[in-house]
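Archive entry. Fields below.
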Amino acid sequence: MSATPREASPIRAFVAQIWGSIFRHGLPTTDKVAARTALTNFFLHIHPVRVKKSAIRVSYTLCLGGLSFFLFILLTITGLFLMFYYIPSIDQAYQNIKDLQFVATFGLVIRNMHRWAAHGMVITVWLHMARVFYQGAYKPPREFNWAIGTLLLLTTLLLSFSGYLLPWDQLAVWAITVGTNMAKYAPLVGPYTRYLLLGGRTVAQGALIRFYVLHVIALPLIGFLLMVVHFWRVRKDGFTGGL
Amino acid sequence: MATVVGGGNGEGRRAVQVPPGPLARPSQRPVTGPELTSPPLVVRRREEEETVVTFPHLVWKEFLAGLAAFVFFMAVSIQINAPLLQRANTAITPNPAKAPWYFVGLQELLERFPPVMAGVAFPTFVIVFMILTPYLDRNPSRRPQDRKVAITLFTIYACLAVAFVVIGVFFRSLAFNWDWTMILGHPGLSSPV
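PREDICTED_STRUCTURE:
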C-alpha cells in the first residue's frame, strides 16, 4: 500500500494510514514481507516464520492435528449457538432440543453439526495420536508434548461424554448410566467418584447440571489450556518431518 | 531430489550444490584439495532441508483443510439428523443400554473380564503406559524399519481397540448378547438393517 507521490491523495493517504495501523507491512508478495506478516500478526504468530517443507507435507501430517483444532473451534461456535436455547433442567432440556430441531431457525443443522463434529473430533484426535506414534514423532525432545497430547485425547473423550447427557433423552441418560457405572468398580474410591460425578445416586437433575458445567466451562477451559501448551511446545521442540 | 554435499572434482567448477533457502549450513567442507575427487560423502534429500515461509504456504493448506472439513460436516449435518429418542424415563431401561461408541470398547471388556480389571485396571494401564511411552521407548531411530517392536505393539493395541468398538456397536444387541443379525439380517426377514 505504498502510494507513489504521483497518486498521493488525501483519501489514499488516509486508507494507507488505516492499513498501516493494522498491518505493519504491505501485501505479502515476497518472502520477506510474508515473513514479516507472520511475525507481526497475533493469529499467525502461532506458526514459526519458516518451516521445513517436509514437515508440512499433507502426506506427512494428514492435517490431523490441525483438523482436530478446527473441529474444536467449530464445536465451540456451534455450542455457543446451542447454549442460547438450552436450559440444563430435566423439565426443560428435552423440550429445548425439540425446539432446536423444529422451531429455531437452523437449529436442526447446528445441533447436527455439533453432534457429528464431536464424533469427528474423537476420531481425528485418535488418528493424530496414531500418526504421531507411527512416525516416532514423540521421541526426544518431544516426550512431554506427547504426554500433553494424551491428556488432550482424554479431555476430548470427557467433553464428548459429558455432552452426551445434555439432550436428556433415553439414549443420553442410559449411556451415562452405563458409563458412570464403570467408575463404580474402582477399588475404594469407585462409589464416591460416581456419587461426585452424578451429584447423587442416580442420573438426575444433579447429574445434568454437573455435566452441563463440565461440558460448557470446565472441560473446554482445560482443553484450551492444554492446547495452548501443546502448540507452544510444537514450536519450541521443533518440527520432525521427513522420515 | 538429492543434493550432493562435500563431494567435488577439482577447481574451476562448482562441485557443491548448496541447498536452497537460508538453512544452507556453513558446516559443509570447503571445496579445495585432492580429496575432492572422492565420491560424495553425504547425500541428503533436498526436501528435508528446504524451508518455506509458513505464511502463506502452511496457512493456505490449513485454510483449505478447514474449508473441506466445514463443507463435509455441513453436508453431513444437512443429510443426517443427530439421534434423539424419547424423553428420558428412568423407569424404562432400553435393551441393550450401550455406552457412547468410544466407551463401548470398555463395555465389551466388562463382558469378558471382572469389573475391576475391565473398568479400572485396563484403562488406567493404557493411559499410564501411553503417557510413559516416550520414556520407555529408548530406541532413538524414527525409521519404521528400526522400530518393528514398537510399531507391532501399537498396531496390536489399535486393532484391539477398534475391534472392541466395532463389536460393541455392530454385534451386540439384546442384553448385550452377540448378534449377527444386525449386520447380516434375520433369516426370516427380507432386508438386513
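CURATOR_NOTE: The helical segments of chain B are 46-49, 54-79, 101-112, 115-136, 148-170, 181-184.
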